[in-house]
Every structure is written in structure tokens, then in C-alpha cells.
Hints:
The protein is an alpha/beta fold. The chain is 56% helix and 12% strand.
Amino acid sequence: MTKRAALDSNVLVYAELEPETPKGIRSQRVIEMAAPRGVIAAQVMLEFVAVVRRRRPESLTSALAKVDALSKVFEVVPTNTFVAGKALTMVRDHQFQVWDAVIWAASREAGATLLFTEDLQDGLALNGMKAVNPFSLSQADLAALLPG
């Protein structure tokens, strides 16, 4: 069975702001591979737009269009009371940063078993999901995690 993957905002940011760099190219590939069954927390979409607006204001229109396009391909998971409660438990019990905990809890609630991020410890496994740094993987390892 294909694993269900969630994306963190850094993956979206690299794809948008650095499309020609190795991280940008890898991010685009991760997005493509995750898309058929992927998950994006609403918090990720908001962080993505905030970063683009701050770093490259002239790209805001492109970022908003990207959010619209991604929301048609990925399941976008809202932050509701249940997700917030799970996130706060992670903050208390595992010392997560609040917004990282929201992304983790929302992604897991939607059934993701992988979270592609460079912000959390690579390999961290908690509550049935694992953090994976997509920039530390070979193309073959990435393909093994998300077979076509």
C-alpha cells in the first residue's frame, strides 16, 4: 500500500522561491510524488503564503495561485478543536513548537504516515507518523518511500 505523505511549508517554499536550486528541484519532485494521496495542513498553506509574502512580496500572487492549485490536488486538513487538543498535548509531552505540533497533529489526523520536513528531527516517529527530511534522501530512497 502506498504511504500517505504530508508536506511541511518548507517544501512548498523551496519549490516556489528556489525552483532551480537542488532543494527547489527536490521539493517539486516531492510535491509531484505525494500529490495522488497527499495531505497538507491548512497551517502549512498559511505559513507558505506568509513566508513568500515576507521574502518575495512580488511573488504573492503566484503563491496564492499555488495554494489554490494545491488545494485541488491534496487533502487540506483544517485546524479544529480536536487537532488543537492533540497539538497542545504534543507541545506539553514532546516539547514541540506550537505550529509544528499543529501541522503534525492535522497531518496525522488525515492519515499521513510520513511528514516531509526539514524542520523536525529526521526519522522522528510519533503517533504512527515519521518525519522525513526529503533533502537528505537519494532519489531512489525517495522513490521507495513514495512509489509511483
